[in-house]
Design a protein that fits this description.
- The protein is of the alpha/beta class.
- It contains six helices and 16 strands.
- The protein has helices at about 15-30, 50-55, 65-75, 160-170, 180-200, 250-260, and strands at about 1-10, 35-40, 80-85, 95-100, 110-115, 120, 125-130, 140-145, 145-150, 175, 205, 210, 220, 225, 230-235, 240-250.
- Strands 5-4-3-2-1-16 form a six-stranded mixed sheet. Strands 8-9-10-11-14-15 form a six-stranded mixed sheet, with helices on one face. The protein has a two-stranded antiparallel sheet with strand order 6-7.
- Helix 1 (about 15-30) links the parallel strand 1 and strand 2 (about 35-40).
- The longest helix is centred in the C-terminal third of the chain and has 19 residues, at about 180-200.
Length: about 270
């Protein structure tokens, strides 16, 4: 059985109302193209102005999540809100960077708070995510009509133990909504995603931000779906839009049966 997923590549800006308008239009388009699930990138509602992150944060569930729950029912499609800023009741001056998964009936299936925060100083990029965001602590895998879904966000992709852990918890499809910077994206984005797909024998689906969000922030794009063998199912061109791909769990099972990597692990060794 095949399930069709849609990944949205956006160029989100500080204009939250416009980003929301675009996201709703992409949801309707994905549904018209008979996708079972549509996934958005990291920070798809606000990007490019750090001051807005705390100001626009909401509780989950909250007003914006409820909008997408209604859209899921209206369009008969499951929605992954790649990430939005969630209020932190223990620390009002900070937020969580949180993914929200909604099924086609409008039920909130899972939330995931980004564990690994992007605090990096490169020659032309300095981003300190932890100044405004608190890290999550929980691994998230949930049952979904397309299979067992694992949730991660962006910088998480550099930490292989996280992906091994959620694969051990049953994940068959792992989503990686992202806003990867241009220099790090050019160097590592597609390689890291492909490696995680191959070493864990899972589908990797990564909806990404693309282009200029502000004078100081630009994302690499290249939204992509890799299958468990590392083959490219779909890859976005350098523009905003939607790519589509099929998830075939029989293919995943065949790959795992022919090369049973997990059963070859040496017991008692924790890497």
């Amino acid at each position: 059985m095949q399930n069709k997923i849609a990944l949205v590549q956006m160029t989100s800006t500080p204009d939250r109302a416009k980003n929301l308008e675009n996201a709703l239009a992409f949801t309707a388009k994905a549904a018209q193209n008979e996708a079972d699930l549509v996934a958005f990138p990291e920070n798809f509602l606000v990007l490019g102005n750090n001051k807005l992150y705390v100001q626009t944060a909401e509780s989950i569930p909250g007003p914006t999540v409820e909008i997408f729950q209604e859209q899921a029912v209206k369009n008969n499609i499951s929605i992954l809100m790649g990430s939005l800023y969630e209020k932190n009741p223990q620390n009002p001056e900070k937020v969580f960077n949180t993914s929200v998964l909604i099924d086609r009936s409008g039920q909130l299936l899972a939330t995931y708070r980004k564990i690994h925060l992007f605090d990096v100083e490169l020659h032309d990029v300095t981003l300190m995510e932890s100044e405004l965001v608190d890290a999550g602590q929980e691994f998230v895998v949930c049952d979904h009509e397309i299979g067992k879904i694992g949730l991660t966000i962006c910088y998480d992709i550099r930490f292989p133990n996280l992906y091994q852990k959620i694969t051990d918890l049953g994940a068959q499809i792992i989503f990686v909504p992202a806003a990867f910077t241009v220099p790090t994206g050019k160097a590592h984005w597609l390689d890291l995603l492909k490696i995680r797909a191959v070493e864990n024998q899972v589908y990797i689906a990564a909806p990404a931000q693309f282009g200029k969000h502000s004078e100081t922030r630009e994302s690499f794009g290249n939204s992509v779906i890799f299958d468990p063998w590392g083959d490219t199912v779909a890859l976005s061109p350098d523009t905003t839009g939607i790519i589509y791909g099929h998830i075939e769990l029989e293919n995943l099972k065949k790959i795992r049966n022919r090369m049973p990597v997990r059963s070859h692990r040496v017991p008692g060794i924790d890497f």
